[in-house]
């Protein structure tokens, strides 16, 4: 179970609780996995890696306050699969991690054998969280930013590529008012744990929440 081909699966863990990291290290020995590194943050882990892990086990809430979606992206860009191992009490964080490309979610209430079975699947190229999983999360209105009709009108134009000035002209609003609407929407997404600092992130959030419509190209 713990091998891809004839070699043990290489894993790493990022968790800000030392007891969890040490417990995971012991479990790796028991289950026959090779722990290549462990750290309390993603930025601490990556420089430590002398061998590339096939799977990084990642907690969602870390003491450095880093965004889960950004952590997932950093690890995927490094070239490893990501498995979320968390109490998963903040659903917005779960969703953002899955949308960003995390391959699986195992909650800390599950058995250790469940975690390692999932690591094995992910290391062998299996995405454990299917589209149905994300769809189930999407159906929870807790994730969805509550936007006014005017905010949507502004954001749809802005996120589709128009400048602030162009949006203001199109809607017969001042440039200041348009910016105010955009900043308010950014605040709403940030409060949900789904930051959207740039135009591309705003577009992604609107698409995730179904605000752009089926005919958006």
From TrEMBL:
Keywords: DNA-binding, Phosphoprotein, Transcription, Transcription regulation. GO terms for biological process: phosphorelay signal transduction system; regulation of DNA-templated transcription. Pfam families: GerE (PF00196), Response_reg (PF00072). Residues 10-123 form the Response regulatory domain. This is Unannotated protein. CDD domains: LuxR_C_like, REC_NarL-like. InterPro entries: CheY-like_superfamily, NreC/VraR/RcsB-like_REC, Sig_transdc_resp-reg_C-effctor, Sig_transdc_resp-reg_receiver, Tscrpt_reg_LuxR_C, WalR-like. It comes from freshwater metagenome. The keyword DNA-binding applies. Coiled coil: none annotated. GO terms for molecular function: DNA binding.
């Amino acid at each position: 179970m713990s091998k891809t081909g004839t070699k043990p699966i290489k894993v790493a863990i990022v968790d800000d609780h030392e007891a969890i990291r040490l417990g995971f290290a012991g479990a790796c020995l028991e289950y026959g996995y090779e722990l290549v590194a462990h750290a309390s943050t993603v930025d601490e882990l990556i420089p430590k890696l002398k061998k590339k892990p096939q799977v990084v086990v990642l907690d969602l809430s870390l003491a450095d306050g880093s965004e889960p979606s950004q952590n997932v992206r950093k690890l995927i860009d490094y070239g490893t699969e990501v498995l979320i191992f968390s109490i998963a009490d903040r659903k917005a964080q779960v969703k953002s991690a899955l949308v960003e490309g995390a391959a699986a979610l195992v909650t800390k209430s599950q058995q250790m054998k469940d975690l390692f079975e999932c690591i094995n699947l992910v290391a062998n190229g299996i995405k454990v969280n299917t589209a149905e999983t994300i769809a189930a999360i999407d159906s929870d209105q807790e994730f969805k930013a509550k936007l006014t009709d005017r905010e949507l009108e502004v954001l749809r134009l802005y996120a589709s590529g128009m400048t602030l000035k162009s949006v203001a002209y199109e809607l017969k609003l001042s440039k200041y008012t348009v910016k105010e609407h955009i900043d308010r929407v950014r605040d709403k997404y940030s409060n949900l744990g789904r930051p959207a600092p740039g135009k591309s992130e705003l577009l992604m959030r609107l698409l995730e929440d179904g605000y752009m419509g089926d005919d958006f190209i």
